[in-house]
Amino acid sequence: MNLIANFAVLASRRTIFDLPVCDLGWDDALVFINELASIPVGQTVVCFVNAHNMLTALRDDEYYRIMSHNLVLPDGIGLNIASQIAHGSPFPANLNGTDFVPAFLTFMEAPRRIGLIGGTRSVVEAAAENFRRHTPWHEFVVISDGFFDKVDSTDVTAEIERRKPDILIVGMGTPLQEKWVHDNIRADHARLVLTVGALFDFVSGAVPRAPKTVRMMRLEWAYRLIQEPARLWRRYIIGIPVFLFHVLRYRFRRRERILSQPEEPRSVSQPAAYRRKAS
Predict the structure, then answer these.
(1) What residues have CB less than 8 Å from 6, skipping those under 6 apart?
(2) pLDDT of residue 259
(3) Can you give the pTM of this predicted structure?
(4) How far from 98 is each of 76, 113, 225, CA to CA, in Å?
(5) Cα–Cα distance for residue pair 91/38, rounded to 1 Å
(6) Residue 188 neighbours by CB distance under 10 Å
(7) Angstrom distance (rounded) from CA 157 to CA 187
(8) Half-sphere exposure of 95 toward its Cβ, with a 13 Å CA cutoff?
(9) Residue 36 to residue 29: CA distance in whole angstroms
(10) Residues sharing a CB contact under 8 Å with residue 33, sequence separation 6 or more, in sequence order
(11) pLDDT tens, 176-212?
């Protein structure tokens, strides 16, 4: 991550399980990331973290370490509740990727070449076409679908080098997409990388979004659960209560550590230490 993005993460002071999460509002986040896209050096990887991602990070030290170097934006009501518990107030905005990325593309007035990776071939092609209609001043190029060899991705990285995108949008699901970007995408491939999960499914129309009223009520998770109960019931019915339990337990254990002894310096392996104490 470049120095400006790194400073912004450290300055936010809105941590969940010691992972810094940006507490910017919509306007500030759009301005800030647009500025990052214009910086000619370094690289910033932007990811969107919800309760499910945070639970994954607690179990996966490699994923947590990678996320600690990324620019993390809060996604969903679970993060808001966690912030309320840990810091006394919710995040200023729900910066979920499904809404934020199209808004960001609109906000960027300077034409950019944007590479897309992820989904099935038909889904990513349809997403690219809808992006072109949405922001015709940008150039959208499909680098690859998401079904390629993740161990040897030389064909994909060679295509990135050939297409030379300014921005790369990767939608392959968490934590695979973040790990793959970390291992394969260099600064000369793209200065700004957005890891977006199932965004292409929504943009292409393959998966319907919840009605606007439902989204405004912060109940899109319930709509998705009704649409895909077999796939999502465990994530929402079990995952959200488990996540909030961990948030409460972590808060009280952290308070105990502060009162009993000087707090140890934060490190990217702290969630593992937390799990050992909690087990």
Answers:
(1) none
(2) 59
(3) 0.85
(4) 11, 20, 17
(5) 26
(6) 10
(7) 12
(8) 25
(9) 11
(10) 44, 46, 71, 104, 192
(11) 999 999 999 999 999 999 999 999 999 999 988 777 7
Place of tokens 């905005």: 93
| Number of Cβ within a 10 Å radius of residue 111 | 12
Residues 6+ apart with CB under 8 A from 262: none
The two structure tokens encoding residue 209: 């979004």
Instruction: Look up tokens 């990811």; give the residue.
Output: 47
* Helix 97-107 × helix 121-134 angle, to 10°: 40
Cα angle 97-59-209, degrees, rounded to a multiple of 5:
25
The pLDDT, as a whole number, for residue 240 is 78
Rounded Cα distance, 199 and 197, in Å = 6
Instruction: Name the β-bridge partners of 140.
Output: 114
Instruction: Look at residues 98, 94, 80, 144 and name the one whose alpha carbon lies nearest to residue 118.
Output: 144
Closest CA to 145 of 183, 172, 175: 172
Sequence-distant (≥ 6) Cβ neighbours of residue 187 within 8 angstroms = 41, 42, 43
Look at residue 41 in the predicted model and tell me its pLDDT.
85
For residues 98 and 44, what is the distance between their CA atoms, to the nearest angstrom? Answer: 19
Could you identify the residue written with the tokens 């370094």? 42
Amino acid at site 71: L
Counting as low any pLDDT under 70, the low residues of the chain are 1-13, 232-233, 254-279
